[in-house]
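During the reporting period, our protein records have gained a structure token line. A sample record is set out beneath this paragraph:
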Amino acid sequence: MNFKWLITLAPLLLGACMGINPNTSPKDSFTVPVAYEVIFERAKAQAQRCWSADGEFPIIGEINSTDRTAFVAVTGELGGNRYGQVDIRALDAQSSQVQVRVNGINIWNAKSIDAMHEVIQFGAPTCMSYMPRPQ
């Protein structure tokens, strides 16, 4: 049998199993003039559409109205590693601090952070960024 495909695929699979690394994974932090509850709904819809791989990777999320925070994350079946996560904190009634982190592998890459940023800011779900970014 030819196992060359396994040698090629193994690093990708093992890397995806590791989830988000707080020190090395791509991330973006930004403030937007949008209420945290609205951001939660936008991020959840975006994650379902673009990060779940047609339901293969579960999307979880929670709003904490006492702390005025929320998160949305995509997880793996094995061990619950997080491949992408959006953390939201209300600054006031109509503005929020957001951090988007991904593990940097496959569909959870820097381009997906750009797309998530645009969805959170403008409200139109898309899996690709259409805004020009500085190089």
